[in-house]
């Protein structure tokens, strides 16, 4: 008896392993190049198909207008936008001093091509290389990739803009910042903006770097905030109250808060009051000297920021679902003109249809870990693409003796362009179920 029960699952596992399309052997072709698969490989065909879309270059697309608006605020910066999304974990994490156990490194959160190669999870992945080239001021626009849940505001690909300014760590650099700060301060004082600021550093909660003269740290942090206050005014000024309770013509309200990033100190987030709600818009800080040393420019000082374009565009254009940015439907694209921010007019809301699937949570990644919600969401995206609106975990329990975990997910299918027929939804769902069995050996309940 014992022998049999030991042998049976083994045989079963061998048979299933051959079926796995996400196996650990062979190669995966990404942007025309073959990469050897390994235990970290988790990039999917759906993600690979997004790699060259460049939505921010499509004239009239909200992401393109927003990008141009931000570039116009930083007119004398280098505008970079054709940097490959394929990076090394060293670029994405190590060069920016991410700790070894940072959750962002996990293959449940990031897309790996293999252990040496991944898709950037943020535009900061290019900071070290751009600093190393000696570029003193730049904006970098790019697609970034994160494994995530499925709902109206999460998509595994989104777009960020990174901005940075470098000055020399001497009196010339300080004179440059001081003059610029005086000019920007005077400009903002004349503008319809109310800024709820915090100290440029706080020895206890948001310290400057030990390498920095406190006066330099202040000049840098102030220059960073002043530059970004101006940007926020350009983006949200005169638009923040539209449709809200407050009367138009009120000044924009910006609020600064302390935060932490592995490669900046002090670090901040900026929020704007939009229709009565404080919305987090960007992260930024004074770049750590370690980062500048990694770029071989230890005698420089820098600040940097990063912002997510979809989040801002959804607010400014009243776009209710992040999938719309990827829509080829002319009813979406034809609404927008390059350079103009206008409210999205929903053209229709087609019926949704949900289906449940319950299964014993299988092992993934060559049996090294249990299936994560993001693994399931990637499978659903590979089958149903943008026809899936959201996925929610509706039930979960652990069998008291076997300790196996059972999960139930509800998948909400809805097209943004047309009505899905029952047959079509059933076929999609049947494919999700069969892929769960084929790729992961999942036992459906
Ligand atoms: N990369 C950060 C993110 O994705 C945003 C960010 C924060 C960029 C601080 C920066 C920075 O350059 O200094 O959340």
Automatic annotation (TrEMBL):
Keywords on record:
Aminoacyl-tRNA synthetase, ATP-binding, Ligase, Mitochondrion, Nucleotide-binding, Protein biosynthesis, Transit peptide
Alphabetized InterPro entries for the sequence: aa-tRNA-synth_II (IPR006195), aa-tRNA-synth_II/BPL/LPL (IPR045864), Fdx_antiC-bd (IPR005121), Fdx_antiC-bd_sf (IPR036690), Phe-tRNA-synth_IIc_mito (IPR004530), Phenylalanyl-tRNA_Synthase (IPR002319)
GO biological process, alphabetically ordered:
phenylalanyl-tRNA aminoacylation
Enzyme class at the top of the EC tree: ligase
Query: What is the E.C. number?
Result: 6.1.1.20
Q: Where is the FDX-ACB domain?
A: 348-445
Q: Does the keyword Transit peptide apply?
A: yes
Q: Which GO terms describe its molecular function?
A: ATP binding; phenylalanine-tRNA ligase activity; tRNA binding
Q: Which SMART domains match?
A: FDX-ACB
User: What reaction does this enzyme carry out catalytically?
Assistant: tRNA(Phe) + L-phenylalanine + ATP = L-phenylalanyl-tRNA(Phe) + AMP + diphosphate + H(+)
Keyword Nucleotide-binding in record? yes
For this record, an example GO cellular component is: mitochondrial matrix
Query: Subcellular location, in the record's words?
Result: Mitochondrion matrix
Q: Return the similarity comment.
A: Belongs to the class-II aminoacyl-tRNA synthetase family.
Task: Tell me what this protein is called.
Answer: Phenylalanine--tRNA ligase, mitochondrial
According to its UniProt entry, this protein's organism is Coniophora puteana (strain RWD-64-598) (Brown rot fungus)
